[in-house]
Fold these 4 entries.
Entry 1:
Amino acid sequence: MTGKTLYDKVWDAHVVGEREDGQTILYIDQHLLHEVTSPQAFAGLEQAGRKPWRIDANLATPDHNVPTQGRELGIAGIADEVAREQVIALDSNCRRYGITQFDILDPRQGIVHVVGPEQGATLPGMTIVCGDSHTSTHGAFAALAQGIGTSDVEHVLTTQTLVQTKAANFSVQVEGRLQPGVGAKDLVLAMIGMIGTAGATGHTIEYRGETIGELSMEGRMTLCNMAIEGGARAGMVAVDDKTLEYVAGRPFAPSGEQWQMAETYWRGLVCDPGAEFDQSVSLAADALVPQVTWGTSPEMVTGIDGAVPNPASTADPLAAEAIAYALEYMGLRPDQPMTEIQLDRVFIGSCTNSRIEDLRSAAAIVKGRKIAKSLKQALVVPGSGLVKAQAEREGLAEIFLAAGFEWRAAGCSMCLAMNPDRLLPGEHCASTSNRNFEGRQGYGGRTHLVSPAMAAAAAVNGHFVDVRELL
Amino acid sequence: MKAFTNEQGAVLPLDRANVDTDQIIPKQYLKSLRRTGFGANLFDAWRFLDEGDIGVTPNERQLNHEFVLNEPRYQGARFLLARDNFGCGSSREHAVWALQEFGFCCVIAPSFADIFLSNCFKNGLLPIVLKTETIDELFLLAQEEQALELSVDLPAQTLCLTGGRTFEFAIDANRKRTLVEGLDDIGMTLAHAAAIEAFETGHRRAMPWLFDKGRALEEK
Ligand code: SF4
């Protein structure tokens, strides 16, 4: 028998059995909840007269809807009545069933995908689900972490399992050294540009190679976060010393004898030498330049040294049509150099890039500089209350404020604009989030996905520049 | 779940690839606590020329007459014909609820995004995958003056053009059964409760740290 991939190992360790419809029943170790995709699941549970299977496997926090200003007011500070009802519903569902929740006033509240790892609720080898597609983030810890719909949220609450068919294995091999100013976000954007947004559909990605080993846990989370943008429901990275260092001492992490036991198991969570992948691609890190998206899908991306594509010189008529359509929405002209895209707002935040390392890399660029006068707004939204506090301790908040950024409370914020932070029609935004879909950051808004360092450089200049010039 | 066997109706061609769930149902409508009330805002940003919000009724809005969903010949369509990677992006099941509530029983495309596909099966919206060439052909027919009428026979796995050809489609046998019999997904899994409990006991023994974490939190 050939070896197992990391995905094979975690999958195999959680198979309960097969249902009569041939699908696998997979045991779920950790279920994360937020206010937007859970109310109907709790309602369904109640209607059916069922109970949650295992309370301590659940952890909740409100993130999508919460305002990033006036936080001290708690729920009363949510001006939008319907949004408030959702946060209240999460509160009452958690209270009713005894589910641990970091509520809107808790200093540990934050984006669920930032909170999980930060609390050690995300552990190597776990199966993790959440009613949110970016659950793939947690794969950075060699966990099998997947986004699910609301029916499955109810299914997991009720049965502690997910029913599915095993995906195929997809290897993304990255070798070489990333240049200063180029990071995990650029790497994953380049990967999506290469394989397309459906490139890894039906697969679980495993990020492998020397470059991945060099990345911090934050960087690996950025990579796995955007696996879904390449079509993969999950992305994973093998366990190494960095993984264990990050996890050790976190509130939900094991300690003492249990840590010893866990460590022995976790060390084995790597891909076996002989393991076979159904698909594979490789990327060279050395040559990579900072990436910027120009269109309305994450695959519509190019290097900062590049230009907006020209539909007239695109051979495939369907692709040419898609480009033309995206350029119209984005208000860009064919062959426009990326550095000539003028910006209205800058957003540093989201589950992709709102961790301490992200804020540090942006602050390093911003330090001693001011944001461009032409900008209407530059926002920094830390991923959690704890990230916010740490950034304040490290003096990062001061750097951002001195430069003219707004420093906000934790949440999803302008990543999807369900709260008051949003773009106005036609506005261009340099954003560290993960989706540049039409209207994602506000009706008619135009999103350009970049790394935190690139967003910081863009904020200082009012248009995109190669951050390497500012180092 | 309601059983799905035979359905028929007109086809609405949505000629765009990578249609994401943010387009199918924009985020401002996700603030609901219910599973219903999303149909009126299906493809909201494309269907209307102005921005909508919860509580704003469609007749207060400006219709985009150029968008296919608003064309008179496609009113009442039950089949959505789409391009590659339909339903990509967010896991919001609201996208499926909105499509169903609007009146669609089936989406036909060359490929679907994974989470969307799984959400379809959980709700009895039939996703049919056909070869790109067949999809191209259907688009041509559906874009003619007279709306194209289809009927689907799920048990037989066929799609028939009214008065015309029949296409066979492949579907996972197990998923098909769940739809045809309208099985209760959670009920089916709970029938295995004993197996889940047994697994859990062994899992706890092998990996006790996964079960003691709640206590660890209290201690700290
Ligand atoms: S930050 Fe954005 S992508 Fe991440 S969970 Fe929130 S809304 Fe989703």
Entry 2:
Amino acid sequence: MNATAVHQPSSAGTGRLAGKVALISGGAVGMGAAHARAFIREGACVVIGDILEAEGRSLARELGDKLKFVPLDVRDDAAWERAVALAEQEFGALHVLVNNAGVLTLGSVTDVDDQLWDTTFAINVSGVLKGMRSAAPAMERAGGGSMVNISSHNGMQGFEGVIAYGTSKWVVRGLTKCAALDFAPSNIRVNSVHPGSVMTRMAGSDPIDHRHKPFNRAAKPEEVSELVLLLASDESSFTTGSEFVIDGGEIVGFSKHWRKINNNYQAN
Amino acid sequence: MGRLDGHVAMISGGAGALGAAIVRAMAGEGARVVVADILEREGAALAAELGEQGVFVHLDVQSTEQWQAAVDAAEQRFGALTILVNNAAVLRKGSVAQTTTADWDFVMSVNLTGSFKGMRAAAPAMERAGGGSIINISSTAGMKGFADSAAYVASKWGVRGLTKHGAMDLAPKNIRVNSIHPGHLVNQMMSLDASLADVPMSFAHVPMQRPGRPDEITGLVVYLASDLSTYCTGAEFLADGGEMAGLAAAV
């Protein structure tokens, strides 16, 4: 039972990103690859950066001349510089950055050791900072741009057992606001996107109980891509420093279905 | 009768401007207090002022080992640890484009990772004590953006999120975790970054048109530390002269 019809991406775009060049980190698989397909459908040229070289090159072969793959570990400043340079060399400019790369790490306050904490932040937080720092000068040369930072519903509230991942996503939310203020004079917009559960390999193949969520399901990556596309395009030209939640209603409250099946809740 | 009788509190950055005010307020309410700071002379003097109620421990919040030693010292000296105030913080100005990696790492390491390490070290001791209260000092910088303050703002948003996720992890152990968000405080910039001591600050945008005093924050800290707030966890407590509510009419 789904509350709404699920978005089906069309193969034919209408040029909503015509003339734009985008760089997507973690673009080889999952949500990043879905964003790349949506961007190309709408007329953009796309550079995908990822540590997953085989998957990245495979996607590049499939999508043709409008997509280039570059090896990118988001912790590496030099790799970011190469990715930005590739966008300008191959496609003449850079207008859009999607900071999509991230790592999900598990553990509660007392479980997480220093190394896991540091790795989580190096990728999910410093990786975003380095991406914005590297892309901003190119966007200035292009006359402006849009940065989309992928946070999470974990950046909107608290969850048990994800102390490092969850905290890192709050930092991305705050850093987005600073970047919006710092880059506004350069005509660069910066917004954060907060997906709930999405059907990707990060989420794993284990069946997840979605019954407490109003829509009782995870998102398809393509549903998130349509929001990222909106923020990347000039259709959102007055939007900056803002938060865009896409979670099927999860953080609003419990589903009616959950109230019926959860005896404890009912007793209260 | 004090509101914190029987409690043992540790305050990181306890020798600084806000930290010392928190230490004195808690001691005044009957708590025994561990003053934890890298400032040896000031911290030891403050602990001495509290007599039997106080002890100083050297604590660089970036150090996992020093956090463990500080918690051990609290249990050895006072028999338990029931309150932790993650107050130590630093500030480095700089935009997203211009913040150096060294400044970024330092601010995040002290303000955010330091608070995480404090929670991680204190939680087992609080569990042994039957429960506890962790108070993380965030800021209005954890609720909105400020230009040219990327690392500080990011770290304070992190502290706000750490509080919520930590509250979920620690609720089953009867440990509460809440965040306090002060606005601009008197002398705050100077205590966080000495190079900013002479920078004039405007409070025209703050509805109350003035900075806050440390003693206007300590009431919230004592409340959240005490058994008056036993149903509060994962929550945010502002003391900002109205700054988050809107812009002052004067702007």
Entry 3:
Amino acid sequence: MAELNKLTIAEARDGLRKGDVTSVELTEACLAEIDAAGVLNAFVHKTPEIALEQAKAADARLKGGEEAPAMCGIPLGIKDLFCTKGVASQAASAILDGFKPEYESTITQNLWDAGAVMLGKLNMDEFAMGSSNETSTYGDVVNPWRRGNETTPLTPGGSSGGSASAVAADLCLAATGTDTGGSIRQPAAFTGITGIKPTYGRCSRWGVVAFASSLDQAGPMTKSVRDAAIMLEAMCSHDVKDSTSVDLPVPNFEAMLTGDIKGKVIGIPKEYHMEGIPAEIEALWAEGTAMLKDAGAEIRDISLPHTKYALPAYYVIAPAEASSNLARYDGVRYGHRAKLGKGDGITEMYEKTRAEGFGDEVQRRVMIGTYVLSAGFYDAYYNRARRVRSLIKRDFETVFADGIDAILTPATPSSAFGLGEMADEDPVKMYLNDVFTVTVNLAGLPGISVPAGLDAQGLPRGLQLIGRPWEEGDLLNFAHVLEDRAGFVAKPGKWW
Amino acid sequence: MSIDIETARKVAHLARIKVEEDRLPALAHEFNDILGFIEQLNEVDVEGVEPMTSVTPMRLKRRVDEVTDGNQQEKVLKNAPDAREGFFAVPKVVE
């Protein structure tokens, strides 16, 4: 089998089971690619010893009597937000410099139990706060895609930018990501890969560094919809260590990829035709709609009237939760502690530690969160935002009750932009990246980004499908049909 | 609602983040940009709408009130910047 690092999970699984390839061979191929791709800055902590040990164990298991799980022997990259025992896990923040957890996140444990292999930890925006992977203590991640023959470095999106870049550049077969407002789907769209955020509660949040607990969900970032189905199944579980983890059986998602969507109803929300969205994005959306119609789905115009208020509500709720969650970084129990001056007490220790340890965007959000939760403003900002959130969720419940099976939208308002291009803009401009994705987190729904074509500059563009709660299987099937019809096979030319 | 330099200083202190004096005007300006964006929420009629407490309609599970974990002092202290004699060490708190 040629170029093992380029395989999909499904191809590798089949090859491993047939004995055409070993996990050690797959792992060594990926490790070599990672070493040669330092310029992308995707992998920030490499774990070759762990990888080869896991790969050997996977090969032994594959030779054993029982059929090994689908993920057995598959080399993965893990976002730095996941706690991995004995391996640096610092959410791309200087405040967690040197932190090596004494425990393993439930999701990564599920993956290792299924026989998967950890190649290392992946770069991201600090504490998952960002849309361009420019807020990381490890530095920017570079998108393997370029505009035509230009050499301008582009963002892979964020916050799961390292995951997106690594999968798009074939440094690993797939990666874990997390999504609080679009952090799986936007980078997937910017790099021509598939990314699914499952229903809130499908994946355990235990051991995943918290940003905004009522919105955070993990999911896979993969080279195909089939791979997303395989890997998502391995990640999901009911977990008593996460009180919001759902106690529902995890279906065989791959078996639900029938390709048959005849008679299903796809909603096209009119509020997503937003001012300032490039004509190219509108055209892509229309093409995607036509593909689903051609596959036998009924297309229906729908209204989600509170869409406009999703981002403002998000920028109250997410910072509020972040300010509470990030209170734990105080220089006492783990990570960085500032050097103290003579006479400095515990308050100075907190203040200096957090000023040194948190980057600008994290500081900004923690302070916004502090403000909207402070006495006198709690009702005006925080409670109002939570009321608006109820209305946003109700919008979706209404259309689902009216018979809509899934909703098709663009994934992002633009293609990948240049690193540094947004540096002088006000923070709100960057927040608009999540305008199509953030509603899904507020409503707790599953959403998937599927690569659907290239723009005039040769950059990938994605479409988003939004599903009913807990019906990731149906959602993946819609995505599978879209993927099949769009026929996206482009890869970035290798320059790194 | 407009945030002045004094409010920015107060918020930074509440958040326990040291912000140098010369950074405060820019910080206040950024807060105002973000809060200006958030103000859009005032257009929405939220009369009679309950604030969301849980995005999925589920009851939190109960469990037996018993010790399930413990005796991990070494692991708990392992990542501390300053641990002594089985404790986290911090600057003097009580005069």
Entry 4:
Amino acid sequence: MSEEKHHIVSYRTQVFVLLALLVLTGISVAITQLEMGPMNTLAAMLIAGIKATIVLAWFMHLKFESRFFAFMVSAVVVLFLLVLLVTFFDYSYR
Amino acid sequence: MTVHRDDLGDKMGMWLFIFTELLLFGMLFVVYAVYRSMHPEAFKLGGDELDVVMGTINTIILLLSSMTVAMSISAIQKGNKKLALTLLTITLIIAVVFLVNKYFEWGAKFEYGFNPGAPELLELGHGTILFFGLYFIMTGIHALHILIGIGLFIYVFWQIRKDKIHQTDYVWLENTGLYWHLVDLIWIFLFPLFYLIH
């Protein structure tokens, strides 16, 4: 039986997290309406990355769990980025 | 006699499952990235056909539902069963609304002949076919996850009502929450990549 103390995230914090996510959504919609060429996608992905980090940290409790969880998630993200990179090397030099 | 429980192990298992899900969607994103780099113009035109307003509404309500399910965990931790049930109900309703929106959105795409195999689509060239193929597959698998989420919410709701999930034993609710946030995470990337290409 696990008896360790659990961190309870306050409702207030969760409302703030939601507000931050909504503001970032607004920014990403607004920014992609501008003509910035490839920068549009870069900006949208950057914002999506920030939003994902916020969801992982607060809603998914990574901030309050053992560091090992965050380490595993980072490893999966790095693996994904490597696959993306290798795939593009393949397609770029065919 | 106390029943042996391993909440940390349960959560670890859930995370491992989430990783397989992330890689499933991740590989679809790789396919998307490759085809988009090969057909940038067609993807741009395809993106223009998608309804930004509908996409934004779905993004907002999905984020809201992530908060309500996260709050329901806090509520159960504080022993507030009634609030936890209310918050879960709100989450469930939002999940259904998301699917209803998707139904209308997909319906409009079918009407314009953008669905896979439609004769109108076949005339539009490779890039557009790939864009809408990926759109239907990726938002479709995502919608399937929403559907599974709805099933999980109903089960968890029932378990809380029967006091099987309570203040000191709520790992089922926690893992359902994790699953739901995963659905939200995927949407956070799907939304800009499909609706906001400009």
